[in-house]
Amino acid sequence: MGVILGIPIVYFASRFLNNKVLLVLAWLVNAFAVILTNYGLSPLGQSALNWLHSWPISISPSLSFMVGLVWIVIGKMFADGDLDKFVKPHAIYWAGGAMLLLYAEEFIVHRLHFVYYNDCYFMLLPVSVLLFGWLLTTHISVPYAREMRAFSTIAYCFHGSFVLCVKYLLQLAGLQITRISQSVLFWLVTVIVSWFLTLLILKLQRVRGLGWLKLSH
Predict the structure, then answer these.
(1) Is the pLDDT score of 112 beyond 80?
(2) 3-state SS string over the chain?
(3) pLDDT at 170
(4) What percent of the chain has pLDDT over 70?
(5) What is the spatial distance between Cα 86 and Cα 78, in angstroms, rounded to a whole number?
(6) Is the Cβ–Cβ distance between 41 and 113 less than 8 Å?
């Protein structure tokens, strides 16, 4: 839904605004979502949440198309050649440094107990831009790339619902995930079930009358 809503918005907005202005506006929307999530329990985040809760409608920017806008704009800028300066082989080294800062940001917000919802980070943008710039300089042939894309898409769309259902069943049984070992086991089960579901869909979509299953990826 983020892509379905975000691409038309960026497309029509680009008729009136250049890419740099679009990037600034999309980043501001993204920053608002970051403040509401990983910085939601900070004084600024609390003020933003209180203001958001005063709206007559309920909205969660971190889980809507609003966060996707900045990624769509960045993709457009790569396609238009506006970010060619990042398309360099050595961008991978800068990406490594940015990734260290990303983990530092995660450590700090958890240490300060700022996290309201662990989803968006400021450092995700530079890490992703630098990694994508480096990837554009590579020429690697990856067999089964379409299958890998199907796995990632289905797992992304499916895992949230699966996790909530399992947690609910555990609560009904009087159990809860309290230790890291249990969390890792829970994660492994989610990955295995997601992979099994993907294999099942890839198999069944070849059956006559079930071609619509392709829509899942």
Answers:
(1) yes
(2) CHHHHHHHHHHHHCCCCCHHHHHHHHHHHHHHHHHHCCCCCCHHHHHHHHHHHCCCCCCCHHHCHHHHHHHHHHHHHHHHCCCHHHCCCCHHHHHHHHHHHHHHHHHHHHHCCCCCCCCCCCCHHHHHHHHHHHHCCCCCCCCCHHHHHHHHHHHHHHHHHHHHHHHHHHHHCCCCCCCHHHHHHHHHHHHHHHHHHHHHHHHHCCCCCCHHHHHHC
(3) 76
(4) 96
(5) 9
(6) yes
